[in-house]
Every structure is written in C-alpha cells, then in structure tokens.
C-alpha cells in the first residue's frame, strides 16, 4: 500500500501532509512555494509510493466554491498532465486554516511561531488528510 498525500493549495505557498504506508496516521510533511509544487511532487513520488492526492476544495458558507478554486483547477490540469497515474480526490476545506490556528494555540505554540503561515498551511493539509481518512 502507498501513501496518501494531501495538498492545501495556495497561490503563494502550499501545505503538504502525508500518511504512513499503512494509511493510518496523517502527518504534516512540509510547505513549498506553489511555483515549485509540481517539481516537489515529481521528486517525492520518485522516492515514495503515493496512491492518491487529496486536494482541498475551498467552499463558501453557502456551499459554492470560493474564488481560489479557479487557481486550483489550473493546478489540477497541470497535475493530471504531469502525474496522470495518481488519482485525485477533493475534500471540503472550509475552516481548516482557522482550525489549524486554534490547534497551534491549544498545543501551546508560541505567538511568534503561530505567525508562521507556512506552518498553518502544513497543519491545514494535515486536517484535509485527516478529514478524508475519517470519511473512508
């Protein structure tokens, strides 16, 4: 069995989370500059077996997709062209950034580290991955 890899796509930075090979535990992996995302993913799948990409689906409170979905759709097209053999699932990512920030507070992370937006993106990707795993 391979890993599941979650992506919290952003126009500047993208948070990435990964499962273990048994797909039991979700962990934050890293945050990469979005312009380097496809290169990172290609290198990662050369080293590790990835069964699926889980990508956040940004929605508004009224259940319509948010403006950032336009950017994600462009990325999805590039991803399917670059790595066509790994399927993609989408997961509602509403509130993940807020939950990630609250998780940092609850974990006792210092105020200075909570200002690290890359860490918030990585935790958000982990929450997206955990959400997917819980619904399976």
UniProtKB/TrEMBL annotation:
Q: Which residues form a coiled coil?
A: none
Under SUPFAM superfamilies, the record lists:
Ribonuclease H-like (SSF53098)
> What InterPro entries has UniProt attached to this entry?
RNaseH-like_sf (IPR012337), YqgF (IPR005227), YqgF/RNaseH-like_dom (IPR006641), YqgF/RNaseH-like_dom_sf (IPR037027)
Q: Does the keyword NAD apply?
A: no
The record's subcellular locations are: Cytoplasm
**Main EC class the enzyme belongs to:** hydrolase
All copies of domain YqgF/RNase H-like, residue ranges: 2-100
What Enzyme Commission number(s) apply to this enzyme?
3.1.-.-
Q: Pfam families annotated for this entry?
A: RuvX
Q: Does the keyword Iron apply?
A: no
* Keywords, sorted A to Z: Cytoplasm, Hydrolase, Nuclease, Ribosome biogenesis
Record's function text: Could be a nuclease involved in processing of the 5'-end of pre-16S rRNA.
**Family from the record:** Belongs to the YqgF HJR family.
Alphabetized PANTHER family for the sequence: POLYNUCLEOTIDYL TRANSFERASE, RIBONUCLEASE H-LIKE SUPERFAMILY PROTEIN
Protein's name according to its UniProt entry = Putative pre-16S rRNA nuclease
For this protein's source organism, the top of the classification is: Bacteria, Pseudomonadati, Bacteroidota, Flavobacteriia, Flavobacteriales
């Amino acid at each position: 069995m391979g890993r599941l890899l979650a992506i919290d796509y952003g126009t500047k930075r993208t948070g990435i989370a990964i499962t273990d090979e048994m797909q039991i535990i979700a962990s934050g992996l890293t945050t990469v500059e979005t312009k380097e995302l496809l290169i990172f993913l290609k290198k990662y799948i050369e080293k590790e077996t990835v069964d699926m990409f889980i990508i956040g689906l940004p929605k508004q409170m009224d259940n319509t997709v948010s403006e950032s979905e336009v950017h994600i759709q462009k990325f999805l097209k590039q991803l399917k062209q670059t790595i066509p053999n790994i399927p993609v699932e989408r997961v509602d990512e509403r509130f993940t950034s807020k939950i990630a920030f609250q998780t940092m507070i609850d974990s006792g992370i210092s105020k200075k580290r909570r200002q690290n937006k890359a860490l918030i993106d990585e935790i958000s990707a982990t929450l997206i991955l955990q959400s997917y795993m819980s619904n399976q």
